[in-house]
Amino acid sequence: MLTTLPRKTAVAAAALGLALTAAPMASAAGKAAAPAPITVNLTVKGSNGVVFSGDIKTTGHNVTTASGGTHKCDSTNNKANPTPGATPTAALDDAAKVKGFTWDATWYAQYDDFFVNRIAKDTGNDSYYWNIAVNGKSTEVGGCQYQLKAGDKVAFTWTAL
User: Fold this and answer.
1) pTM recorded for the entire structure
2) Computed from CA positions of residues 158, 50, 122, 84, in that sequence, does the dihedral angle turn out positive or negative?
3) How many H helices and E strands in the chain?
4) Number of neighbouring beta carbons within 10 Å of residue 108
5) Which pLDDT band holds residue 27 (cuts at 50, 70, 90)?
């Protein structure tokens, strides 16, 4: 009996060690990694010309506006995509931080998305709004729902209704 006790202890210790080693791996496997930033080409064109034009590194992230508050903007909004990624609105937010221009948007909970109502000095009204296009085509979903791919051409354009 004395010779089996150390063996049982060694087996139990080995099993416990394996369990403790596997536990962090299991929890890490169940948790999705944050998406890697991508580079897109962003153009923001207002009533007085170009506000921003160039490449911007971006990923989906929380966005804060004065009118809308803080909300996620990672393309999973309104269940548009199963995994998070970069969005036009997050790219606009990143460009504003880099270039130093301001923008604002209203949050609409029913759409789980922002509606951009001002960039620089141009504020939406009954005659104009900020159109969002990707690769030359207006988006059919909000700017926090559309998932960008590396190299996409994103445009926010001051547009007549």
Assistant:
1) 0.80
2) positive
3) 2, 10
4) 13
5) very low
User: Tokens in use for 50?
Assistant: 């170009």
Cα dihedral across residues 74, 62, 141, 100: positive or negative: negative
| DSSP state letter for 44 | E
- pLDDT tens-digit map of 136-161: 999 999 999 999 999 999 999 999 99
Of the candidates 101, 115, 99, the residue with the CA atom closest to the CA atom of residue 67 = 115
- List, for residues 101-149, the tens digit of each pLDDT value: 999 999 999 999 999 999 999 999 999 999 999 999 999 999 999 999 9
Query: CA 156, CA 158: separation in Å to the nearest integer?
Result: 7
DSSP symbol at 143: T
Contacts of 49 (CB under 8 A, 6+ apart): none
8 A C-beta contact, residue 44 and residue 57? no
